[in-house]
């Protein structure tokens, strides 16, 4: 095995980890793949013979690549989710069968990176997001993050602290019992399809927030309050020919299809203290067409 082959082999060992970093940074599976590929190009152009910790070196490089990508985003599809009632842009969901993740997805979603957390990450400034993701989610020391941002370690620590407060305030820890959460999601689905408004309201937190991202082809929606969200769920359920249980970023969710099998939505639920506090619904047909739903809809 020559040097290039050995370098490629070592890079492939770190690829799942780098993809996980990039996904948290960018919220897009395809952009994450692009960032990992660009990291490989940078590795090929660098002399890493004296690098003692290649994994750490690659992590900071992919972080820098993602930071540049975040700063250069200009199109509607790439704008961050607004914190108020403005346009909604949800991250790409990772969809798997209703029972378990495959090994690659387990690496990608380690540390319970649910849609609710990803939504909050979308609202952070690029530098805040980098500091928080690398330090809080991947334990990279501030001294190693600071050069990427062109800041001091103390300033980088402040960025991460500010981001952490935003995350903790907007995305508190959800319930983690998969079986109980699945019961609640199944009950929500049954009540929606049955038009049972009272049953839906009972499953929802009074201050529940529902976000829908339709991309450029369908309007996005943001609704608040149990009655409004329940009414909208009943209306939407009438358009879905079939709905399948799934894991969406590792937690119980629903994939809905039209009569011809075209994906209509991927729905993620945030459940706290036994009630639904948030729904994040991707209805963008362009992005839905790129998501692998095979494990969910295959017989």
CATH class of the largest domain: Mainly Alpha
Radius of gyration: 20 Å
Tell me what portion of residues adopts beta-strand conformation.
Answer: 15-25%
As a percent range, the share of helical residues equals 40-55%
Strand order of the largest sheet: 1-4-5-6-7-2-3
- SS element count, helices: 13
> What integer is the average pLDDT?
85
> Any idea what the CATH architecture of the largest domain is?
Up-down Bundle
Polypeptide structure, described:
- It is a single chain.
- The chain has 299 residues and is an alpha+beta fold.
- The protein folds into 2 domains: 3-86 and 115-170, Butyryl-CoA Dehydrogenase, subunit A, domain 3; 178-297, Nuclear Transport Factor 2, Chain: A.
- It contains 13 helices and 7 strands.
- A hairpin with a 5-residue loop joins strand 5 and strand 6 (263-272).
- Helix 6 packs across helix 8 (153-170) and helix 9 packs across helix 11 (226-237).
- Mean pLDDT is 85; it is low at 74-83.
């Amino acid at each position: 095995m020559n040097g290039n082959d050995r370098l490629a082999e070592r890079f492939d060992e770190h690829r799942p980890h780098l993809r996980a970093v990039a996904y948290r940074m960018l919220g897009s599976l395809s952009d994450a793949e692009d960032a990992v590929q660009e990291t490989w190009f940078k590795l090929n152009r660098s002399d890493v013979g004296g690098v003692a910790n290649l994994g750490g070196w690659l992590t900071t490089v992919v972080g820098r690549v993602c930071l540049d990508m975040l700063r250069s985003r200009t199109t509607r599809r790439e704008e961050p989710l607004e914190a108020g009632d403005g346009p909604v842009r949800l991250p790409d969901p990772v969809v798997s069968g209703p029972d378990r993740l495959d090994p690659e997805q387990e690496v990608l979603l380690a540390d319970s990176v649910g849609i609710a957390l990803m939504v909050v990450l979308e609202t952070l400034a690029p530098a805040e997001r980098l500091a928080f993701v690398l330090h809080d989610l991947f334990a990279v020391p501030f001294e190693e993050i600071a050069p990427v941002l062109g800041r001091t370690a103390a300033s980088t620590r402040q960025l991460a602290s500010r981001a952490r407060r935003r995350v903790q305030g907007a995305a508190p820890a959800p319930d983690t019992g998969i079986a109980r959460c699945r019961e609640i999601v199944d009950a929500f689905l049954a009540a929606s399809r049955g038009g049972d408004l009272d049953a839906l309201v009972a499953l929802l937190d009074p201050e529940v927030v529902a976000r829908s991202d339709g991309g450029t082809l369908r309007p996005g929606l943001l609704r608040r309050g149990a009655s409004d969200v329940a009414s909208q769920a009943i209306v939407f359920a009438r358009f879905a020919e079939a709905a399948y249980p799934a894991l969406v970023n590792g937690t119980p969710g629903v994939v809905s299809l039209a009569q011809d099998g075209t994906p209509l939505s991927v729905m993620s639920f945030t459940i706290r203290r036994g009630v639904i506090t948030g729904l994040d619904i991707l209805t963008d047909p362009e992005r839905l067409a790129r998501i692998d739903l095979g494990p969910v809809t295959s017989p």
